[in-house]
Design goal:
The structure holds two protein chains of two kinds.
Chain A (H helix, E strand, L loop, with lengths): L6 E4 L1 E4 L6 H4 L19 H4 L21 E4 L11 H9 L3 E4 L4 H8 L4 E4 L2 H13 L5 E4 L4 E3 L5 E3 L4 H9 L3 H6 L2 H13 L1
Chain B lengths: L6 H7 L2 E3 L6 E4 L2 E4 L5 H10 L9 E4 L16 H17 L2 E3 L9 H7 L8 E4 L13 E4 L2 H10 L1 E4 L3 E8 L8 H12 L7 E6 L1 H4 L3 H9 L8 E3 L4 H7 L8 H11 L12 E6 L6 E3 L7 E3 L16 H11 L14 E4 L7 H11 L9 E4 L4 H9 L2 H8 L2 E2 L20 E4 L14 E4 L2 H10 L11
Parallel strand pairs in B: 3-4, 3-6, 4-5, 6-7, 9-10, 9-12, 10-11, 15-16, 15-18, 16-17, 18-19
Antiparallel strand pairs in B: 1-2, 2-8, 13-14
Classes of the chains: A alpha/beta, B alpha/beta.
The complex binds iron/sulfur cluster.
């Protein structure tokens, strides 16, 4: 069982950069662990720390003004390498949802498989979120999974899409493997028909 | 009346175990590849659930990302890398999976060894916890990268839950100019449609310029499908494909192979099949390509200027563009020709097959590298290395001052010992130029093996056509 996702109300961290690839989210040299936990320490490692390991003051995660469980990022978030470690690192750091105007396919799947909600909104709405959060970092954003709505403090809102199956999984903390395991007999029968054709 | 289907639809439909309204399709996976980085947590998952691997004979493992490319017979020096490879060894032994471990004659980069061993066959569904699984699409397969949770699903059930992606057809027609190879075709396409231009799609490559390519060149094209966001890319199998497969170690043989070839001949899109999107390019428009930025879409013809922010189409990309050029230490509006490079990396699952090495040897034969560049040639597999030595390519490289190393992912990603130092420029035949991809602070120019070879000789970014009179 995974953590259930129902409704998230949180401040947000703005990262208005496009094409953030998973090598930035978690560089390859930190992928050597053989467990799922602990990747948060190295989230955005090379943007966050200099070579000596000192925090770079200009990077948003080092800016005490911003915190929260929502990351707001530019379009095409999570492109590049399929490393699920990217989703683990974001989750481990404390994020529970990513807002962007576009997600790379593999990252989206990986996030959904790890109770991390990718929320895709329009470019305009995304820019609006950046403005609101940057003007007032204490602004709280509501992500309501059941009603598929993102609501901003000024009352404006936007709906978002999510696959109905994935929605049920997230809201109940199910994972795909339970469903697949229940089909093992059907799978074996299918395999037989495949090799006979 | 039967409906016209695309090649993609034919393979997908033949692998759907179950379809249910509102649910993703349950897709049967014919072949699964694993490596040390993205599999340990999946095996832990099986252990936690106390279940075996459902079909161990359909999974093949190798160690590639974390292995050194020098002194491969010695234990891996770096403790964490060693631990990860040992973990793979223990997991494969415990769950009954064939492993081509360091030192094994079949070891190599996962996407190089699958095809070369005849494990990759037309019409298959293939997955691996690695985005460049798209490489196998060159054989007319549905092949795509997955995350570790999905690796666990495949190990547990030989199936994966997937939504059917949209389909895109990319045609390249006509004849390639001299000095232009598969890598240039794909870098050109990505530069035209951007690093996210095919997100949500599965691409079929077609057209005369694609049909005329060798299998290895087709793999280079399909390999980089992910760099424009596509889940994967595939090419209809033909005689080139069948001839490549014949005689491979694990490929079907004799009558069985002939029977299969007859079946595989049906693996093409029907006339009139419809795609969600169709793009067409002319081969004659393509020149040797090079990237200047920090995503593979930021590419230009080697003789072109880097654009200026004003020349960019999308306003929203400007900030990323400026950041990217700062990282690369380059000025907008300038040309890359003559720019000094510090390293040349010839390797990776994009360009480390025997034809790539031959291409490099053809350019450098009888020449020497520039004194202040370091040149690494990293074969994609043990078998490629062996063949290169048998053909005498190793001597050509040695005389040129290149270092021929042992197989692995090497400097394609800054994970193992082979890293490009901060601030240094590397012309690389790999597939990603992301910030820090080849090591923290490393600056990458992506190009073809021909262009990399030319740069090795001059020490500068060079139009390889000058070498090909
Ligand atoms: S060579 Fe590079 S791209 Fe290919 S599998 Fe290895 S790390 Fe990934």
């Amino acid at each position: 069982m995974k953590e259930k996702f129902l409704k998230l109300v949180s401040t947000a961290v703005p990262l208005p950069v496009e094409n953030i690839d998973t090598d930035q989210i978690i560089p390859a040299r930190f992928l050597k662990a053989t467990i799922r936990e602990g990747f948060g320490e190295n989230l955005f490692r090379d943007w966050r720390f200099d070579e000596q390991g000192n925090p770079k003051p200009g990077f948003v995660l080092n800016n005490p003004k911003y915190s929260g469980r929502i990351l707001v990022a530019g379009k095409n978030f999570g492109c590049g390498s399929s490393r699920e470690h990217a989703a683990w690192a974001l989750y481990d750091y404390g994020f529970r949802a990513i807002l962007s105007s576009f997600f790379a396919d593999i990252f989206r799947n990986n996030a959904l498989n790890n109770a991390l909600l990718p929320v895709q909104v329009s470019d305009d709405f995304l820019q609006r979120i950046f403005r609101i959060v940057e003007q007032d970092p204490s602004s709280k954003i509501t992500i309501d999974l059941e009603n598929q709505q993102v609501v901003l403090p000024d009352g404006t809102s936007s709906s978002f899409d999510i696959n109905p199956y994935k929605k049920v999984c997230l809201m109940n903390g199910y994972d795909d493997i339970d469903y697949l395991l229940s089909l093992r007999d059907e799978i074996a029968a299918f395999e037989k028909s495949l090799t006979e054709s | 009346m039967s409906v016209s289907k695309t090649l993609f639809d034919k393979i997908w439909d033949a692998h759907v175990v179950k379809q249910k309204e509102g649910y993703p399709d349950v897709l049967f996976i014919d072949r699964h590849f694993i490596h040390e980085v993205t599999s340990p947590q999946a095996f832990d998952g099986l252990r936690k659930r106390n279940i075996p691997v459902f079909r161990p004979q359909r999974t093949t493992a190798t160690a590639d990302h974390n292995v050194p490319t020098k002194d491969q017979h010695l234990p891996i020096r770096e403790a964490l890398s060693r631990h990860q490879v040992e973990k793979l060894r223990a997991n494969c032994a415990e769950f009954g999976i064939e492993l081509y471990d360091l030192g094994h004659p079949y070891q190599g980069i996962v996407h190089i060894i699958g095809p070369e061993l005849g494990l990759t066959l037309p019409g298959m569904t293939i997955v691996c916890g690695d985005s460049h699984t798209s490489t196998h699409g060159a054989f007319g397969t549905i092949a795509f990268g997955i995350g570790t949770s999905e690796v666990e699903q495949v190990l547990a059930t030989q199936c994966i839950l997937q939504y059917r992606p949209k389909t895109m057809r990319i045609e390249v027609n006509g004849t390639l100019q001299k000095g232009v190879v598969a890598k240039d075709i794909i870098l050109y396409i990505i530069s035209k449609i951007s690093a996210s231009g095919a997100t949500g799609y599965f691409v079929e490559y077609a057209g005369s310029a694609i049909e005329n390519l060798s299998m290895e060149a087709r793999m280079t094209i399909c390999n980089m499908s992910i760099e424009m966001g596509a889940r994967g890319g595939l090419i209809a199998p033909d005689d080139t494909t069948f001839n490549y497969i014949r005689g491979r170690r694990f490929a079907p043989q004799g009558e069985e192979l002939n029977r299969l070839i007859n079946k595989w001949k049906q693996l093409k899109s029907d006339a009139g099949a419809s795609y969600d999107k169709v793009l067409r390019f002319e081969a004659s428009d393509i020149a040797p390509m090079i990237t200047y930025g920090t995503n593979p879409g930021m590419g230009i013809r080697i003789t072109d200027r880097i654009p200026t922010p004003d020349e960019l189409n999308a306003l929203s990309e400007k900030s990323s563009f400026v950041k990217s050029l700062q990282y690369m230490g380059l000025e907008p509006g300038t040309t890359l020709l003559g720019k000094k490079v510090d390293y040349v990396f010839i390797g990776s699952c994009t360009n480390a097959r025997i034809e790539d090495l031959r291409m490099v040897a053809r350019v450098v034969k009888g020449k020497k590298k520039a004194p202040d560049v370091e040149v690494w040639v990293v074969p994609g597999s043990k078998q490629v290395e062996k063949q290169a030595r048998e053909e005498g390519l190793d001597r050509i490289f040695e005389e040129a001052g290149f270092e021929l190393r042992g197989p692995g992912c090497s400097a394609c990603l800054g994970m193992n010992e082979d890293k490009i130092p901060a601030g240094k420029y590397c012309i690389s035949t790999s597939n990603r130029n992301f910030e820090g991809r080849q090591g923290p602070g490393a600056r990458t120019f992506l190009a073809s093996p021909l262009s990399a070879a030319a740069a090795a000789i001059t020490g500068r970014i060079t139009d390889v056509r000058e070498f090909l009179e």
